[in-house]
Amino acid sequence: MNITPRDVNYFLAVARHGRLGPAAKACGVTQPALTKAIRRLESECGLVLFERDARGMQLTPEGRRFNEVAEQLGKTYEEVLRVAADARAEQSGRLRLGSTDTTRVGLVSLVLSALVRQRPGLRATLQIGRSDQLARAVADGHLDAAVIPSYGEPPEGCDHVEVGEDPHLPVMSTMHPLARHSRLAPSDLMPFNWIHGARSSAGYQSLKALFARFELPAPTVAVEVEYASETVLSLVRASEMLAMVPRSLYRAADQHGLQLISIPEFHIDRSVLCLTRSGTERSPLTKAFCDLLMVQTRAWRGQRGG
Questions:
Q1: At what angle do helices 61-91 and 284-303 cross, to 10 degrees?
Q2: Is the distance from CB of 90 to CB of 119 less than 8 angstroms?
Q3: Separation CA 281–CA 193 (nearest Å)
Q4: C-alpha 263 chain-centroid distance
Q5: Parallel, antiparallel, or unpaired for β 168-173 and 242-246?
Q6: What is the dihedral of CA 165, 169, 173, 177, to 10 degrees?
């Protein structure tokens, strides 16, 4: 018996509406197309399913029994379509991600590359920017998720999960005058200029607070940058300027010509957060990215002993 799900759906529409006109409109087809579908179904079943009269289309006793089975078949077919749609959504579609330059180096690149291997139909965009810009983009619905460092309170309009820590550490050139000293104090840094964010940035405010913790005035920023990068490290190598850089960037960079400034407690704590938009359900792809991100995070913590 060659019965198609489409013809069964047409039958159910006619049985529900009792007339060809409303049923055809509900199915988005013409009345002749609906009539042909019913005739095909009756021919395949060898049964008369409808009585045609002035009132419209009325189910015969055989039609009523067939309707009971058809309704169950229709529900099963819809469930199959839903499962297939969910599977396609998990395997394909577009994922809009955001990352800072430093978080891109570690977790995000690993997780995104793994996700692309698992889901060949996936198409992703990766926006590199400042933490505040990316957080706004997530809150406004322009990004599905973003991985950013945070100095304190999580951004408004975003749900968040902490995925790690990435403190800012002080660095200098191996040729710097201070590099000859075996022991340093925060006050030894005062004569030297810094490469850092603008005075209005959260990063600079954190650096200012760090100096204040040691009862020192705010440092002088000679070169303002939007964020720490390889360019910042190159400037440090070639000058007597100092900089605070994320631990992840320092580990990933060529450390030739650089060294950390070893002063106990002289660092800026930062958490790494995965942001999604508050009050919205995550798409299958967004959920897959976040879940894989947490798996990778737990693996890293295990390798490093927690």
A1: 40
A2: yes
A3: 47
A4: 37
A5: antiparallel
A6: -160
Per residue of the chain (306 residues), give pLDDT as tens.
Answer: 577 888 888 889 999 999 999 999 988 899 999 999 899 988 888 889 999 887 788 999 998 998 888 888 777 777 666 665 555 555 557 889 999 876 655 678 888 888 888 887 788 899 988 888 999 999 999 999 999 988 777 788 999 988 888 899 999 999 999 998 989 999 999 999 999 988 888 889 999 999 999 999 999 999 999 888 889 999 999 999 999 998 888 888 889 999 999 998 999 998 889 999 998 888 888 998 999 988 887 776 655 554
Upper half-sphere CA count for residue 141 (Cβ side, 13 Å): 4
Q: Which two tokens stand for residue 1?
A: 């018996």
| The residue type at 111 | V
Instruction: Classify residue 55 as left (phi > 0), alpha (psi -120 to 50) or beta.
Output: alpha
